[in-house]
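4.2 Preliminary Data

To establish feasibility before requesting continued support, the project team ran the inverse folding procedure on a target of 371 residues. The structure was first converted into the token representation described in Section 3, and no sequence information of any kind was made available to the design step. The complete token record follows.
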């Protein structure tokens, strides 16, 4: 590990936290890398879809350390397990992939690489919930693993890659002024007839359906690690990726606007948008209300477009409801509306015909008097 210290120091230059000695740096990375791989062991071996090579590797080539035994002992305690998951997802705790690859090859003595392992864990570490039968298999199969990447960056890229790879920067500028308008909370939208549904899994699928008055949002699991993971994903998006479009920051902003009180959390929970494993709805509301502290405003066209659509519905609610009631009461079918329109046209033509006939008779009488 020490012969890679120059490369490692260059990688950690952004964080400015490297120790002075090469030997100390090598020991720190070796220790932390071993701990990370051993902690991920539980996630991989619990995965029913984990391939046999990965399963055999973790069962046969790893004897748990004293620290790992303590973690396994408290594995069923959500707080302990979530705390470690949150810690390994912190931006300042990341380990370069090339270091993890070196440790893995040294331990395994096989051709097992990180790509085959990490593709089984990104959706587990992601705060968003994905249906196992709908995970995008071609994204997992074509996983690209850059040597200079790390676990947090890998999970972020998978979330964004699953959502959309298109840059919407130019289009986003159309929505910038509109986003300054305050989005109503979930309770306020519910009072206007808006329904919430978790029929989408990716950020680019967020939308508001004006026909069914349904706001489609992905499902997020809220527990002890959620705030830390989301903050670090947004920090990575802002300070490392430096992308003009910021999907996760935009999503956090959207959720913060929807949630003001515990009642808002209940509305979203009933719609399947939030899985509350944190505690009370008050705790979830408090978490979201404080998450945007220190964050800027994100831009992402699908979310901005959905916000604009729902604000338009909210501000024009009375007019939309009147039109909907008229349509439902008097024109429930398209053919009935057309037949009514045709009847009106025939009536107008008949009235015109009568008026023209009367005018013709009047003219004839006047001409006879003049004679």
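Position-by-position output of the design step:
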């Amino acid at each position: 590990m020490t012969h890679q210290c120059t490369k490692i120091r260059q990688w950690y230059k952004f964080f400015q936290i490297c120790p002075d000695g090469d030997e100390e740096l090598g020991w720190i990375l070796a220790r932390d890398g071993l701990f990370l791989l051993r902690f991920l062991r539980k996630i991989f071996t619990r995965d029913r879809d984990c391939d046999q090579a990965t399963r055999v590797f973790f069962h046969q080539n790893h004897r748990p350390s004293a620290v790992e035994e303590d973690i396994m002992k408290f594995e069923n305690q959500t707080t302990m397990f979530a705390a470690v998951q949150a810690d390994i997802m912190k931006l300042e705790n990341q380990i370069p992939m090339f270091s993890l690859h070196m440790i893995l090859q040294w331990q395994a003595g096989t051709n097992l690489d990180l790509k085959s392992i990490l593709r089984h864990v990104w959706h587990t570490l992601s705060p968003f919930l994905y249906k196992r039968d709908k995970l995008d298999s071609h994204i997992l199969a074509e996983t690209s693993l850059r040597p200079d990447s790390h676990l947090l960056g890998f999970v972020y890229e998978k979330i964004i890659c699953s959502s959309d790879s298109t840059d919407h920067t130019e289009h986003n500028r159309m929505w910038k002024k509109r986003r300054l308008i305050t989005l109503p909370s979930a309770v306020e939208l519910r009072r206007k007839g808006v329904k919430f549904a978790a029929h989408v899994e990716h950020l680019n699928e967020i939308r508001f359906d004006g026909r069914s008055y349904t706001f489609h949002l992905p499902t997020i699991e809220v527990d002890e690690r959620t705030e830390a993971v989301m903050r670090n994903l947004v920090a990575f998006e802002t300070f490392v990726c430096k992308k003009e479009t910021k999907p996760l920051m935009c999503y956090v902003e959207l959720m913060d606007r929807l949630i003001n009180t515990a009642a808002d959390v209940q509305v979203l929970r009933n719609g399947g948008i939030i899985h509350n494993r944190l505690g009370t709805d008050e705790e979830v509301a408090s978490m979201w209300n404080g998450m945007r502290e220190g964050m800027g405003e994100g831009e992402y066209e699908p979310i901005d477009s959905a916000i604009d659509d729902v604000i338009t519905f909210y501000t024009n609610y009375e007019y939309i409801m009147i039109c909907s009631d008229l349509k439902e009461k008097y024109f429930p079918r398209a053919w009935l509306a057309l037949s009514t329109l045709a009847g009106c046209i025939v009536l107008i033509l008949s009235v015109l015909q009568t008026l023209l006939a009367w005018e013709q008779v009047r003219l004839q009488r006047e001409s006879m008097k003049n004679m």
